[in-house]
Write a structure and sequence with these properties.
4 domains; 14 strands; GMP Synthetase, Chain A, domain 3; single chain; alpha+beta; 10 helices
């Protein structure tokens, strides 16, 4: 990779090439002339280095996210846009909730009614977040405010969580999809083609495909959402419809979500432990495992598709700050936990006995 020369390096090279016998120290005529030129040459050097980086997908994001997006678009890999969370709220009272009526959480996240609903006593109103992104996937019981009076309506609450709000695809995920497309032979509806088709859908975070899973002419596609959670029924239907539009005629396609596999950890730790830092680091580790299990062929992964006790122990020391540990158990056993394509590992109960 090309590296830009500094202004000082360029100045020294210009002085070395000069055959003038005049003095070259700072303040002399020759120094001032060459120094002013070296400043402009150095600017070009920086631009040249950036151009080299922008030319390759692996480094394009270092020059700006838009350059990676343009590089990926050349291969038909389009950055997935952020989406709006949606769901339903229950309102109490007698009146009419007009389309666009606003309900909010205590933190100020706003949700608008999708349609006009006449309410008598109580009623259910479909709503969509006003802002895009995963932050609006609020849990049940958090949409409780009516900021602007709705005649006859006295209260509101969401009895279930909002869902399917996703952030814009990150540079890392876009690069992974780009590399998946250019490095794997996706042709004529093979396994890699189904993975690519699933990953094209907004809201899909990772995917895998199992050919002939239930005999000849059957294909199973497994997905998780962009928030590394189980996919909703709506997202599963969207992925299925998209694959049906683009796949070759023939196979019967089944689209399912990976299912959560809780990881319970118990351990005796020596020294002080920052439990929150340990939990966060384990969640990151599990998220990385999901990408490995769903992005890469099992034949390539072999023994990598498992949660290892050694790694959990290392996290306890490196991130949790423990001096040492004993009796580390994962789901009650002193052994590694293997993962299948349909497993979505999530952190369960953590019990740390400081000794």
């Amino acid at each position: 990779m090309y590296e830009a020369r500094t202004q000082e390096e360029i100045l020294r090279e210009l002085q070395a090439q000069s055959e003038s016998p005049q003095a070259k120290f700072e303040g002399t005529f020759e120094y001032d002339v060459l120094a002013s030129n070296s400043i402009e040459f150095a600017k070009v050097e920086v631009e040249l280095e950036q151009a080299y980086k922008a030319a390759f997908a692996d480094t394009a994001a270092e020059t700006g996210s838009e350059y990676l997006a343009m590089r990926a678009e050349e291969m038909g890999v389009i950055r997935k846009a952020a989406t709006y969370a949606h769901g339903e709220v229950t309102v109490m009272g007698t009146g009419t909730v007009l389309a666009g009526s606003i309900f909010t959480t205590m933190a100020g996240l706003r949700f608008a009614a999708d349609e006009e609903v006449a309410v008598s006593g109580s009623g259910t109103v479909p709503v969509t977040a006003v802002e895009v992104g995963a932050k609006c996937n609020v849990v049940a019981g958090t949409i409780v405010n009516i900021p602007m009076n709705i005649p006859g309506i006295s209260s509101v609450v969401n009895e279930e969580a909002m869902h399917d709000g996703y952030d814009e695809e990150s540079d890392d995920d876009l690069l992974a999809r780009y590399l998946l497309k250019v490095r794997t032979p996706a042709t004529s509806g093979n396994r890699f083609h189904y993975i690519q088709w699933a990953l094209e859908v907004e809201g899909v975070g990772n995917a895998d495909c199992i050919p002939i899973w239930a005999g000849p002419g059957t294909v199973k596609v497994i997905i998780v959402d962009s928030n590394q959670h189980e996919a909703s029924e709506e997202l599963l239907a969207t992925v299925y419809d998209h694959i049906e539009e683009v796949r070759p005629v023939g196979p019967a396609v089944t689209v399912v979500s990976a299912h959560e596999l809780a990881l319970d950890i118990s351990v005796d730790a020596l020294g002080t432990v920052d439990e929150e830092a340990f939990r966060d680091a384990v969640r990151t580790y599990l998220s990385e495992l999901v990408k490995k299990v769903l992005f890469v062929s099992k034949a390539i992964l072999k023994n990598k598709a498992q949660i290892t006790r050694n790694r959990i122990g290392s996290i306890l020391i490196e991130k949790g700050g423990a001096f040492d540990y004993r009796n580390l158990r994962l789901n009650g056993l002193e052994e590694n936990i293997g993962l299948d394509a349909e497993d979505l590992p999530v952190l369960g109960e953590v019990t740390i006995n400081v000794i």
